Structure formats: C-alpha cells, structure tokens
Automatic annotation (TrEMBL):
UniProt KW Transferase keyword: yes
Name used for this protein in its record: Glycosyltransferase, catalytic subunit of cellulose synthase and poly-beta-1,6-N-acetylglucosamine synthase
Coiled coil: none
Membrane topology type: Multi-pass membrane protein
CDD domains xref list: CESA_CaSu_A2
Gene Ontology biological process terms from the UniProt entry: cell wall organization
Gene source species: Maribacter ulvicola
Cellular compartments annotated: Golgi apparatus membrane
Annotated TM spans: 5-26, 312-333, 345-369, 384-407, 446-464, 470-487
Family annotation (SUPFAM superfamilies): Nucleotide-diphospho-sugar transferases
Length: 494
C-alpha cells in the first residue's frame, strides 16, 4: 500500500514537472520570436490623419462600476484626447450602485457643454457585468472603431492618433497597447505585479503576435473594429475574462490583431493584497473557463497552423500552470522522503532537474523583458535578480489561491465578476485605508496559507535528518512566499 501511494505521488509529481517544463519551452520560443521581431522594420499600412477623408469615427467606451476615487481623474484625462470632435464619441457605461452615479452624471454634463459628444449610459440590470455593459453600449455606438479604457487607465492625449491609424489594413480587428504602471515603486507588491505584467506585455504579446499566433485583447487600453466584434459573436458574459473569450473567437474567424509595444498606456496597480487577490482570482479562473470553452475550437480549427494551435493551447493553459506548480510544491516533501526510503526509485528524481531548467529558462526570458523597459547594465541586473526571486517566491505563495480559481474554472463553477478596487494613490505617504470598496473580511484561504508556510518550514527542516538539501532552496522560497501572502493579508485590511 505504501509503495503504491509512493508511485501515485511520483506520477502526479512527474507529470506536473513535465507540464511546467513544456510551458517554459513555449516561453523560450516566444523569447526567440520577441528578439527577432526587434530587428524587423515597421511596414504596416496606416491611415493618413492629415487627410480628413481618412479620419475614421471612433467611440471611446469607459465601463465603470463604483469608481469614486478615480472617476474625476478618468474623465479629465479622456477629455484631453486629441481627435476631431466631429469624429469622436465617448460613452460612460456606468453600472454603479452608489452615489457616484450622480456625481458622474454631473461631470459628464459639464464636459458635454464644452462640445464633447459624451453620453452617460446606465443600466438597472447588471447582467453580463462588464461584457453586458460593453455590448449594450455597442448597440448605439456611432463609431466604426471602439476604444476601451478601464477606470484606472490614463491614455496619453495622442493615444488615438498612434493606434487607430493601423486599421488602414482591413484585416486588422484589434490594436492593443502595452500597459504602464503609475505606481510601480509603491511597494514590494506593486513591484512584483509590474514585473509579471511587463513580461506578459513584452515577451508574450510580442512573441505571439510577431509570428501570427493568437494574442488577447487585455480588456482595456486597446481598440476594436466594430465589425470584428459583431462578426465574432459580440461580447459574452459567460466567463470572467470576456476579453480573452472574444479575442479567440475573433482570431478563429481570421481577424488579425496588432500589438503596439511602444505605445504605453499607464494604469494603477492594486496596492493592497486583498485587491490583488480578487484580480488574480478573476484572471486565473477566467483563463480556465476560456480553456474549457475554447480549446477544442482551437485544436479542431482547419484555418490555423499547428504551431499557432500549440501556442494557443499553451496560452489558454497559462493559469493552469498554477495548479501544476502547487502540486509540485505540495508533493515535494513526500517525494523527498520517498527518495530516501526507496533507493530503486532514486532515478525518477532526476526529473527534478527539469524544474531547475524551467526556472533558468524563465530567468533568462524575464531578463530580456525586464531590460527592455528598465534598461541593462550591472546595477539593473542585480536589481533584476532580486526582483525575480521575490516575484518567484510570492507567485509560489499565491499558488493555492490561484489553484482554487483554476479548479473552479475547469469545473464550471459560476461566480460573479468582482471588480478590482481602485485607489488613486502613487506614493507610500498616501493611505488606502479609507477605501470603502475594500473587502473587510479576511480570506478563508489564509488559514491554509499559514498551514502551508509551516508545512514548508518542515520541508526545510527535513533536509537535515535526511541529509538531502536539493529541495531546500525551493522550500525556502515557498516558506517566504506563503508567509508574505499570509502576513500581508492579515495586516493589509481596510
């Protein structure tokens, strides 16, 4: 019985390690694509906005929900967009249930007096959440192209001039820009969030887009061709990541996406771990929901090549990697004892080297994305080493929380769209504690995260009697990661 259990643990452990390894190889291929793209010249056809006949009509959609702290900032910024007023419409899609509905209506009325074509659109039924609001606004939108910004995004005044021009190519369905970070240096939490997002918006988006593989509209800071949205089946609210869902449906219908790494759209990162938790949960559960909904359509599609299918499947499996990482972490301690109890199974644990190789691959990939934004040089490389291992540890600490999200997504458990609270703060001197949208209750997962912190402390101790320190660094990072998530969750409350 004990030997059978040992074999079962080893099989699950090994499969998880192999999946992580395949994921890291896919990332390495994206790095190669990314570096080769850097050497290519931009030759895409573009609208000539100096010719009035070529200036298209654009609708800007601002989906908002209870955004007291950032609403004024958002409207003031959008009003500065440089574009002919006769060719621009702004829709404030307001699903708010608090007093901001009144203040937003007053702000919109003032902007309308300046000559802006801006409408305040409210719903009594929030069905479909963000997707439902976007879909309802689309029905009356005047624009041929639809730009979308979440409440915490602050596009530059020339943003439209840099993006809408690429729709000269009739096959382009979406133009997506890179997210910037208004409060990157606020805390360790914001630094690691920025680090992870930078990797996605450089390595992954450029690496896929440069070879014609599927990418995703990121829910904001991008612009759609209205015809593309309709042709792909319009917005649907049956997943928590409606942006990824519509992106894949559009690309399966042969629409092309254009990613602009050099156009940065700054936004605010969550400064409190409860807000980061809700955002991570939505993204990871939504990713799993979309895998469940879309993967067979990708695999069976006859109009896309095998390599695009491979990267599409790996893209849809992104969030599921947290499940693999969590299983590897959880089973690493019993595996350590199995290795020392059953000498004939010792060869199996050479698979552990795959995790080391995977980590090295990610270390190399993330360095290229880090230096593309932060710059190279020795000092930056030292900073990079520090932030990489901090990020890696905290990502491990989030693995339980994100695994639960992934499992719910794969099992089809429905949950409502929980928006991320916004703060409108950028320096440590500003306080977030008065934010009325923050969750007041502690996450029940905290108990398990504290238990896991102790579990991996035991894993570090186990290295001493077993005289096997191969997993000690891994268990140390897990201990730090779960400790960080637990104590930050305990102390960072409104």
């Amino acid at each position: 019985m004990a030997l059978a259990l040992a074999y079962f643990i080893i099989i699950i452990y090994s499969i998880s390690l192999l999946l992580i390894f395949f994921y890291s190889l896919a990332q390495l291929n994206l790095l190669i694509n990314y570096l080769s793209q850097k050497r290519q010249n931009e030759t895409a056809p573009k609208f000539n906005l100096l010719d009035p006949k070529e200036i298209p009509f654009v609708t800007i959609q601002l989906p908002v929900y209870n955004e007291e702290y950032v609403m004024d900032r958002l409207l003031e910024n959008i009003a500065k967009i440089e574009y002919p007023k006769s060719k621009l419409e702004i829709q404030v899609l307001d699903d708010s249930t608090d007093d901001t509905v009144i203040s937003t209506a007053a702000s919109v009325a003032k902007l309308r007096e300046t000559g802006l074509d801006i409408q305040h659109i409210t719903r009594t039924d929030r069905s479909g959440f963000k997707a439902g609001a976007l879909k309802e606004g689309l029905e009356i939108a005047k624009g041929e192209f639809i730009a979308i910004f979440d409440a915490d995004f602050l596009p530059a005044s020339d943003w439209l001039k840099k993006t809408v021009i690429y729709f000269k190519d009739a096959e382009i369905g979406v133009v997506q820009t890179r997210w910037g970070h208004l409060n990157r240096d606020y805390s360790t939490l914001t630094k690691i969030q920025a680090f992870a997002l930078d990797a996605h918006f450089t390595l992954e988006q450029v690496g896929r887009n440069s070879k014609g593989h599927f990418i995703n509209f990121n829910g904001t800071a991008g612009i759609w061709r209205k015809e593309c949205i309709i042709d792909a089946g319009n917005w649907e609210g049956d997943t928590l990541t409606e942006d990824l869902d519509l992106s894949y449906r559009a690309q399966l219908k042969n629409w092309k996406f254009k990613y602009l790494e050099n156009v940065e759209t700054p936004a605010e990162l969550p400064v409190v771990i409860s807000a980061a938790r809700s955002q991570q949960f939505r993204w990871n559960k939504g990713g799993a929901e979309n895998f469940r909904k879309t993967v067979w359509s990708v695999i069976s599609a006859k109009n896309i090549p095998f390599k695009t299918k491979f990267h599409g499947v790996m893209h849809l499996l992104n969030s599921s990697m947290f499940l693999c990482v969590f299983l590897v972490a959880l089973l690493s301690i019993p595996s350590l004892y199995i290795k020392n109890m059953y000498a004939h199974l010792d060869w199996v644990f050479s698979l552990l080297s795959l995790f080391t190789v995977s980590t090295i691959i990610l270390f190399v990939c993330y360095w290229f994305t880090y230096k593309s934004i932060q710059g190279s040089g020795f000092n930056n490389f030292v900073d990079y080493i520090r932030i990489f291992f901090t990020f890696f540890s905290v990502a491990l600490g989030f693995s339980l929380h994100n695994t639960i999200a992934v499992l719910e997504g794969h099992m089809g458990k429905r949950s409502e769209f929980v928006r991320t609270p916004k703060f409108n703060i950028s320096t440590i001197k500003q306080s977030w504690k008065g934010n009325k949208y923050l969750a007041k209750k502690l996450s029940p997962n905290m108990i398990l995260e504290f238990a896991l912190m102790l579990y991996f402390m035991f894993g570090m101790y186990s290295a001493i009697p077993l005289n096997d320190f191969g997993l000690f660094p891994f268990h140390f990072m897990l201990f730090l990661g779960f400790g960080f998530v637990f104590f930050k969750s305990l102390t960072s409350r409104a």
